[in-house]
């Protein structure tokens, strides 16, 4: 028995991928409940799921009692399931996001090992594992984790069907595509569809596109995804359809919304920065792309990368999370390149690691200056010193690259960034964000009384109070409320107070929004 136990431990110690999956679970789940709800999208999504659950409504998403037509409902369903299991808290709201992060890493590993090589799969997983942006996004209560996983699953399962012609892969791909559509909308069908058509034509697999099984493919998508869209259209008399498809899809593509515009180059930069540290090898990878065309799986990964980056570069609205569905495929390309270098099939120069060192020094300086400039976080400026870890990691990787080559340098990067991401995401980031205006002022609000807002407020107040907040749109409405209920509390912004100069009120609290120019205020009657 002891010998069997020792053999099991020895096998575990030598099994690199098992350790990578264990590390992934630790990095994705540790501390996801300790970061307070404060980011606007997180709070709105978490509260919308709760409102649907409280109403026992599976069709119409709402926030603050009003229709929320920003996204389809898939992430709300998973959040509700977590609320039933773990209770109404931040951990539950983020639980399935983290789980789908782990599954995204697993499915990337599974298909890359199956269709390319063990070495490529290992390094692809490593590239995702050390990406702070990848981990950060999958620790949030937003729809992107679900979208990324199901787009990845849909494309990879379709590839498996194209190679093996097993109907199970086609059905799995269709179901994944349908669920991706229920996570984000038509873009989840259009972009993967463009990739797969392009890839099939490049491989001269015309029979894939002109087979009766494609009718089955689209039928499965329709059966899974279409009923909810029809039901919500009927339940809201077309309002959800109009707002979602025209405002949050067509208009977002056509013009910048909420100030999120920018140049074409921004989206490639989002991907490069988002997949740091391993993305520093992108320049060297691009030089070798001709050799990538010989492997159909790698070629497909290239097409995914190109389609997503070009599409969102053309979009009027640009956000760092938009091109994230291509992250697993960029990681596959990076894993393929790194594995070729380590196995002696390619060579790489050292300059990418020097670039990484320079970037990390700049991040350390930016973190130190940023926390120092922000009044609310000056006392926590020391957390910026966490960025010394990536600096030391990059310096160590440069040294090991020169002495022992890329493989040892990558081991240093994986170890160093795993430590950094754990400390930063699970400890440092929550410690700083606990000092946000919502956390500081929620104790002043009365859960059993109506809370008001003048025009603007952080939606995290809804999540912590678990109630609707009545929004007042003009000073006269504020005056009427405070006259009738002097003890009523109204949330607003300091910049809006000059509009209330004719209103008799007293200032209860004033807290600067973290890393924003606005300041949250609470007022009541005198």
UniProtKB/TrEMBL annotation:
Annotated localization = Cell membrane
Domain ArnT-like N-terminal positions: 51-234
Q: Where are the transmembrane segments?
A: 20-40, 81-109, 115-136, 145-162, 168-201, 208-230, 263-285, 297-316, 322-339, 351-371, 383-401, 413-433
The UniProt entry's GO biological process terms, in alphabetical order, are:
lipopolysaccharide biosynthetic process; protein O-linked glycosylation; response to iron(III) ion
Which keywords describe this protein according to UniProt? Answer: Cell membrane, Glycosyltransferase, Membrane, Transferase, Transmembrane, Transmembrane helix
Any one cellular component term from GO for this entry? plasma membrane
Q: Which membrane topology describes this protein?
A: Multi-pass membrane protein
Q: InterPro entries, from UniProt?
A: ArnT-like_N, LipidA_mod_glycosyltrf_83
Q: Which Pfam families match?
A: PMT
A Gene Ontology MF term for this entry? Answer: mannosyltransferase activity
Q: What is this protein called?
A: ArnT-like N-terminal domain-containing protein
Q: Which organism is it from?
A: Niastella yeongjuensis
Recite the lineage of the species: Bacteria, Pseudomonadati, Bacteroidota, Chitinophagia, Chitinophagales
């Amino acid at each position: 028995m002891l010998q069997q136990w020792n053999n099991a431990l020895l096998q575990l110690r030598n099994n690199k991928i098992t350790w990578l999956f264990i590390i992934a679970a630790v990095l994705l789940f540790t501390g996801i409940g300790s970061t307070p709800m404060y980011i606007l999208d997180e709070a709105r999504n978490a509260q919308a799921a709760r409102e649907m659950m409280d109403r026992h409504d599976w069709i119409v998403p709402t926030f603050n009692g009003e229709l929320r037509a920003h996204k389809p409902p898939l992430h709300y369903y998973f959040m509700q399931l977590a609320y039933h299991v773990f209770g109404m808290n931040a951990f539950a709201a983020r639980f399935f996001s983290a789980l789908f992060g782990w599954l995204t890493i697993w499915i990337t590993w599974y298909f890359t090992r199956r269709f390319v090589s063990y070495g490529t799969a290992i390094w692809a997983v490593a590239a995702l594992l050390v990406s702070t942006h990848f981990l950060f996004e999958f620790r949030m209560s937003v729809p992107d984790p679900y979208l990324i996983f199901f787009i990845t699953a849909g494309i990879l399962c379709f590839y498996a069907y194209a190679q093996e012609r097993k109907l199970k892969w086609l059905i799995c791909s269709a179901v994944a595509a349908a669920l991706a559509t229920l996570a984000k909308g038509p873009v989840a069908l259009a972009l993967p569809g463009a990739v797969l058509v392009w890839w099939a034509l490049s491989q001269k697999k015309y029979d894939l596109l002109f087979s009766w099984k494609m009718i089955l493919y689209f039928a499965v998508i329709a059966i899974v995804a279409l009923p909810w869209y029809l039901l919500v259209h009927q339940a809201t008399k077309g309002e959800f359809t109009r707002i979602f498809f025209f405002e949050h899809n067509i208009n977002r593509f056509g013009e910048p919304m909420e100030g999120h515009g920018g140049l074409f180059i921004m989206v490639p930069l989002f991907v490069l920065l988002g997949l740091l540290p391993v993305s520093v090898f992108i320049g060297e990878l691009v030089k070798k792309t001709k050799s990538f065309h010989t492997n159909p799986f790698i070629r497909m990964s290239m097409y995914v990368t190109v389609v997503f980056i070009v599409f969102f570069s053309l979009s009027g609205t640009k956000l760092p999370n938009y091109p994230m569905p291509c992250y697993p495929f960029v990681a596959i390309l990076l894993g393929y390149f790194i594995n070729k270098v380590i196995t002696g099939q390619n060579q790489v120069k050292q300059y990418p690691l020097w670039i990484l060192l320079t970037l990390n020094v700049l991040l350390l300086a930016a973190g130190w200056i940023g926390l120092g400039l922000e009044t609310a976080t000056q006392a926590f400026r020391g957390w910026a010193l966490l960025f010394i870890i990536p600096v030391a990691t990059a310096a160590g990787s440069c040294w090991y690259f020169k002495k022992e080559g890329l493989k040892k340098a990558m081991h240093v990067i994986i170890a160093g960034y795993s430590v950094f991401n754990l400390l930063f995401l699970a400890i440092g980031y929550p410690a700083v964000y606990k000092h946000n205006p919502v956390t500081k002022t929620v104790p002043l609000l009365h859960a059993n009384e109506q809370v008001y807002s003048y025009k603007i407020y952080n939606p995290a107040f809804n999540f912590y109070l678990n109630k609707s907040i009545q929004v007042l749109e003009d000073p006269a409405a504020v005056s009427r409320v405070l006259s009738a209920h002097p003890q009523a509390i109204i949330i607003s912004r300091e910049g809006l107070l000059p509009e209330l100069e004719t209103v008799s009120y007293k200032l209860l609290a004033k807290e600067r929004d973290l890393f924003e120019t606005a300041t949250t205020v609470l007022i009541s009657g005198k």
